[in-house]
Amino acid sequence: MNKRILMICAQVSLLGVTACGIQGEGKQDASLKTLSIDPSLKDKVALKACMDLATCKQDEVTFVHAPDGKTFERGYREDGFISFKDNKILWNGQDKEVEIGKFANNAVTALCSQEFEDVCDLELSVKHPNDASENQEPFYFVTFRLRQPGEMIRSGAGDSYHKSLLNYVIQSPNQENAGTCNLMAATGALEILLNQWKDAEGKTVDTSNDGASDLSEPYTINTAIGYGYGDTLAPIMAFNHNGNGAVLSKDFPFVNSYDGYDAQINWNRPTPDVYRVAVPTIKGTSFFGGTTLNDNTKWAVTVMDEAQVETVKSELRKNRPVLVTYNHSDFWHVVVVVGYDDELSENCQMVRSYYNKAKALYGAKVKAAVDRDGGCREKGVFYVRDSLGPGARSPKYSVRSYDWLKYLGNHIISVHQ
């Protein structure tokens, strides 16, 4: 790779993405342009893409830490690569070239957004180690996929897909280095139930950020902890203990680097004396892994099978959000599953990228299980609401293959009224 890069960057607020190009005139060589994100004030990440199509497959798509160029993830040569041509950003793969964005004057004007939001999904995220030690490197991830033809037409509920919960999902704040995934997921699940409750009562459903159903994550963090953070049910059940009340995000917002704070500050904030909104009484049902997170359970991989995939789908058909704990690249994480579709494909990217990113013991175990089962499945995705992603808030939802749950998951809890 040509390292002689002078980058000129321009921020794109929608994705938190920065486009960095090569300065100069005349014929461009085989240097790389770079798409970058700045997920916090001190971390900078870049996704490199080829300028010269003749050498792209050798350079592949690489996720690096700038400015020292240390590689955190090499990705998906078999899937394709990103290139730049004229003012177009292109995905080259599977014998086809697809326009996924545009740039002008070294600035991205759209990337899997605006007129291209139905073409592809791009998710860039950073996760700090659980102890948030300054001596440990954070983990960086990139997930890209082309949308399938007709995907945006499929909506509502059916035997092979169920997406009604997507109508109630609110974006999560980006947790950055706070280590609050369990609490963010609990808040997200309750927001879904709150909007369902409003819908059933004929009241207005609000999925806007800082709106009437956007609940305060710091309130969850600072009230649920007294009920046992090691219990997977504690954060969500704490709302019942608090008199079926919650605080709105606009009155007690989660703060991160985009507000000029270290996100860990959210752990030690006194709850303000503000109006508490009524929320439904809730229950949590554990379907796998029990309700206690410990060093034996939260790191487990390859402990589930097809039965658990069908269990999650069954709960979603009951319009119940599902909390899933899983192991990914040497940390455990909790997300909310909010839908599924048997006909779509994520191409098993998260599972396959896990082989090399995780510790040797975990990665080898997952790969052996996938090989034993005849490889990744071709179709089937869950829609997932996560608390990691670019910008001040994470994407509203992204997709994960069914194999993500099967091979990396270790806890399943259904949340319902």
Task: Describe this structure as you would to a colleague.
The chain is an alpha+beta fold and 417 residues long. It folds into 2 domains: 7-146, no CATH class; 151-416, Alpha-Beta Complex (Cathepsin B, Chain A). Helix content is 19%, strand content 30%. The strands form 5 sheets. Strands 13, 16, 17, 18, 19, 20 and 21 form a 7-stranded antiparallel sheet that branches. Helix 2 (181-200) crosses helix 3 (217-224), helix 3 (217-224) crosses helix 4 (234-241) and helix 6 crosses helix 7. The longest helix is centred in the middle third of the chain and has 20 residues, at 181-200. The radius of gyration is 21 Å and the shape is globular. Mean pLDDT is 75; it is low at 1-33, 37-44 and 56-78.
CATH H-level homologous superfamily name of the largest domain: Cysteine proteinases
Examine the coordinates and then state which fold CATH places here, giving the name of the CATH topology of the largest domain: Cathepsin B, Chain A
For the biggest sheet, the summary is: 7 strands, antiparallel
> In which range does the helix fraction lie?
10-25%
Continuous helix count = 8
Q: Please tally the β strands and state the result.
A: 21
Name of the top-level CATH class of the largest domain: Alpha Beta
Residues in β-strands, percent: 25-35%
Structural class: alpha+beta
Mean of residue pLDDT values: 75
User: Regions with pLDDT < 50 over 5+ consecutive residues?
Assistant: 1-33, 37-44, 56-78
Distance between the termini: 55 Å
Second CATH tier, the architecture of the largest domain: Alpha-Beta Complex
Q: Tell me the count of domains.
A: 2
> What would you report as the Rg, rounded to the nearest angstrom?
21 Å
| SSE string | EEEEHEEEEEEEEEHHHEEEHEEHHEEHE
Shape: globular
